[in-house]
Design brief:
The protein is 35% helix and 24% strand. With 249 residues, it is α/β, with parallel strands linked by helices. The protein folds into two domains: 1-76 and 158-249, P-loop containing nucleotide triphosphate hydrolases (Rossmann fold); 86-157, no CATH class. Helix 4 (112-126) crosses helix 5. The longest helix is centred in the C-terminal third of the chain and has 18 residues, at 172-189. Bound molecules: adenosine-5'-diphosphate and magnesium ion. Residues 42-43 line the site of magnesium ion.
């Protein structure tokens, strides 16, 4: 539903060039990952695509439409943040009040019955049990919070799905499961997804293609297999070696 084109995108914060003239072409329905160390500019690229930041230079296109000057809600993009950004004072779901899972739909003035149906469908898809509905985010585990954050972001089908390191706080065991779930969700939704992480095995396990990012630029863009087999330069090679994992290609 959305092919994303980024042309010469630049974002500066004072003297810091967070994103330096990057170009990207992401295919419709692709699972595309921005991978790189902390401070590389990954979150900034995501926020620029979401419309949460304005670029200093460059343009962004969705399906050929120039969205550079559109507001976030006009872009029909959903973003799952690193800290999940759930409403702390609201329940996971409450049929009769604003809650984390129905907030967006109530604002859109959906009928309560339609919301009920949608929420139960989404809850099932991302694995949120009904017992959790009456809890507030403070009463959820990291994994549960993550499910709610993802669930909330898919109650309406986004044009583009953006995820900023949503697995950072998960234990290794849950991680393996969640990787599969995110990948499965992507297949079900058929929505172009940009995923941000500093974790190489996560990127390798989930992505169709990866952009390895450092200091505001992309060092290499290719499939996991091709980057692993043919790292383009020392930085990419070192990044893989320091992760101390091998892959079965
Ligand atoms: P990453 O997500 O890869 O860790 P970021 O996109 O968050 O990297 O940051 C890229 C660079 O931009 C870093 O040097 C960071 O300190 C800087 N930066 C990000 N956001 C801001 C901001 N709001 N104000 C000033 N500097 C920022
Ligand atoms: Mg970040």
């Amino acid at each position: 539903m959305a092919e994303i084109l980024v042309e010469n995108l630049t974002k500066r914060y004072g003297s810091v060039v967070a994103v330096n003239q990057v170009n990207l072409s992401i295919k419709d329905k692709e699972f595309f990952t921005l991978l790189g160390p902390s401070g590389a500019g990954k979150t900034t690229v995501l926020r620029l695509i979401a419309g949460l930041e304005k670029p200093d230079e460059g343009e962004i296109f969705f399906d050929g439409e120039n969205v550079t000057n559109l507001l976030p809600n006009e872009r029909k993009v959903k973003m799952v943040f690193q800290d999940f950004a759930l409403w702390p004072h609201m329940q996971v779901y409450d049929r009769d009040r604003y809650s984390n899972l129905n907030f967006g739909l109530r604002i859109r003035k959906w009928l309560t019955e339609d919301i009920e149906q949608k929420v139960s469908e989404v809850a099932q898809k991302v694995g949120i049990k009904k017992e959790l509905f009456s809890r507030r985010p403070g009463e959820l585990s990291q994994g549960e919070k993550q499910r709610v954050a993802i669930g909330r972001s898919i109650t309406t089908t986004p044009r583009v799905f953006l995820m900023d390191d949503p697995m950072t706080n998960l234990d290794p065991q849950s991680k393996l499961k969640v990787r599969k779930e995110i990948r499965k969700l992507h297949q079900d939704l058929e929505t172009t997804t940009i995923y941000v992480t500093h974790n190489l095995p996560d990127a390798m396990a989930m992505s169709d293609r990866i952009a390895v990012m450092r200091e505001g630029v992309f060092e290499q863009i290719n499939t996991p297999k091709n980057i692993y087999r043919f790292p383009k330069n020392d930085f990419v090679r070192d990044f893989f070696e320091s992760a101390k994992v091998s892959f079965d290609f």
